[in-house]
Structure formats: structure tokens, C-alpha cells
Design brief:
Glycosyltransferase; two-stranded antiparallel ribbon; two-stranded antiparallel sheet; globular; 6hp_glycosidase-like_sf; Glyco_hydro_88; hydrolase activity; Unsaturated rhamnogalacturonyl hydrolase; 6-hairpin_glycosidase_sf
Length: 410
Amino acid sequence: MNTYKSNSLILLMLFLGFATFVSCKQEKKEAQQVETIQETGISDSLKWSERMALTLMKHHPEAYQIDDKTEPKWDYVHGLVLTSFEQLYKKTGNEQYFNYIKGYADDCIDSTGAIPSYKFKDYNIDMIEAGNILFNLYNTTKEEKYLKAMQLLRKQLDEHPRTSEGGFWHKKRYPSQMWLDGLYMGEPFYARYTVEYENGKNLDDVAKQFELIQKHALDSKTGLLYHGWDESKAMDWADKQTGCSPNFWSRSLGWYAMALVDVLDYFPQEHPKQKELVQYLNQLAVALTKVQDTSGLWYQVTDKGDKGGNYLEASGSAMFAYAFAKGANKGYLPAEYKDVANKAFEGLTRDLIKIGENGEVIITQACAVAGLGGNPYRDGSFEYYVNERKKDNDPKATGPFILAALELNK
């Protein structure tokens, strides 16, 4: 071996050794950070966003464990919470938040880009939502499996069953139905994908989903939108004239409000549908502010106040706080909606949050789950919504809480 080759080999070995040392040192540092949280607790000097994020990491060391899962599962609740972690990472630059997101994606997606726990043929719009975390993962790492997974989710939207006017069914097993939840589950991913990979060619189709839900689920008296709409009017919960479910549910309205502010990130101001979406957001903001409680929070059944059994609910209130704060920050909503959002956030931290003995942040009075139809049958009645179980730190509350805290810089 000549001297040049020998020196090159030595330099390469030194470089590889240094790179391994740096990598190990970083991993050790991140492990120590998590260990410190476990041992010393969570400081109340941190902002609410980090206090909640560290609480979740303390209780769920692997992100797939969120919502008490025991094995990796591709699910919208993980996507929602990890979207908030993505925003937190952008704000703080703390690598542990990025690694928490990446850990979930790597646990759920194999080397080919397949998602073993995801059932394509279920045509469940909920399953699109977690795809939102893949854009930045792919842009940062350039690992092809993330792109392949995004392409798979985008393919679902191409084949997804639709109403006669082109609205995505909520799920294959809920034929002809659009739910407010579904707008958040599918449209932010669809909007971003078509802008980044299709030159925006399907933005009109994204807007159409909002147009159809406004056309069919909007109550002209209150300005609120019903949880679900059945084009066939075949479901027992559906009004035989309108096809709408019988009540307004705050979390479904929260999904819708968040969907609007998030898809608007991808609609250029000059796009003909942009002003229409902003108008929908403003109409909804006016309607929701009318039924906001003096505490700053919203009731589980949005317009029924303290009627027997109704309660001030955390997830919907956090979603509204986020949507109003972001809407005001981005200029979609008048500036006074930042005050509405602050009032909501103050209500959450004052009335619905407990602090654990190690500084953990615990959101109470969060509805664990609610839907329409199915087995056992969910009739959408007032009694149904107020009697569904509650769960502390339900991910549908913790994710929006972090997002709201970031928008409000709390």
C-alpha cells in the first residue's frame, strides 16, 4: 500500500470514528434528557407547550404508546399529537421532539414504505391524517419510505368512495356520509400533497369538500354545523328532510375549524377558492363566539349550555383556541379573535388542568370518543353525547392544547 492510500485510509477511519462518537454522544444526551424528566419532574418554568409535550413523553416513552396503545398502530390521534410536536420542534429546535416523531413513523412504516397496521381497502378518511408528519420527515431525511407511504395515502384519496357531488365518505362502512371530523382527517394532507407534488392541481377538489359540508351540514339559524350528514338519509340518526344528525358537537366543530386554518396554509391568496374558505372560517368564528361560556370554554353539546349533564369540554375548547389564535395570527380572522383564543386558553389552564406531583400537565373533562351509527348504535342525541366516557389527557385534547399554546406563545 502506498503512503497516499495509507494516509487516506487512516483519515477515513478517524472520520468514521469521530462520526460514531458524535452520534453516540447525541444519543446519550437525548437519553439523559428523557431520564432527567423521569427522575426530576417537569419544571413549571417551561411554557405550557413543552410542559405538555414532556408529560406525554414521560408517560409514553415511545410515541406509538399514545392513547394507551401496546403496539405500533397508524392512527389519527398519533398524527394529531405529533403534528403539535412538529410545530414545537420548529419553535425550539430541540431534537428530542423530532426524534419522537421519527420514532413513531419508523415503528409504523417498513423499509418499503408499506404501513402494516393500515388497511387501505377500509377507505377510512381518518387514516390519512397521520400522513401530515411525513412531509417534513421526508424533506429532512430524504428516506424514500416516507415518500412511498405518502404516495400510498394519496392513492387512497384517488380511490376513496364519494357522494354523488364528490364529497369523501367518512369511511367505507359509513356509506354516503360526510362528518365534520373527516375534513380535518383528509384535507390538510390532500392540500399539502397537491401543492408540493402536483403543482396544486387538486386544490379545487380540496375546497369542494368544504363547500359540500357547508351546503349540507350548516344550520342557517345558529351558523353552526351538524356533526354528520347522510346523503341517503337512510341512517336512523339522519333527519329525513336534511340528512343531518340532530346535534352540534364541539369536537366535530373543532376538527372543522382546525381543518380550515390548516388547509389555508396551502391556498395562495390569489386562488379563487381562498376567500371562500376564509369566509367559512369567519362565519364559524362568529357562531362559536356566541355560544362561548363566560369561563372561556365550550360545552360538549355546543349550544345547550348547562342543560342537565352537559359539561365544559376540553378537546373542543382547545381546538377552538388553536383555530382562532392561528386564524388571527395569519390574518384570516380579525385580531379580536386572539382575545377569544386567550380567554379559552385561560379557561383551560384555570378550570380543566391539574398538575401532577412530578409537574405533569393533566387535562380533564375530555370526551374520549363520539361518533354516529355503528355497533353499538350511536344516535347523536343530546343524551348520547353527554354520557360518552371522559378521559384525562386524551390525545384529541393534548395535541390541540400544544398547538394553541404555541400560537398564543403561552
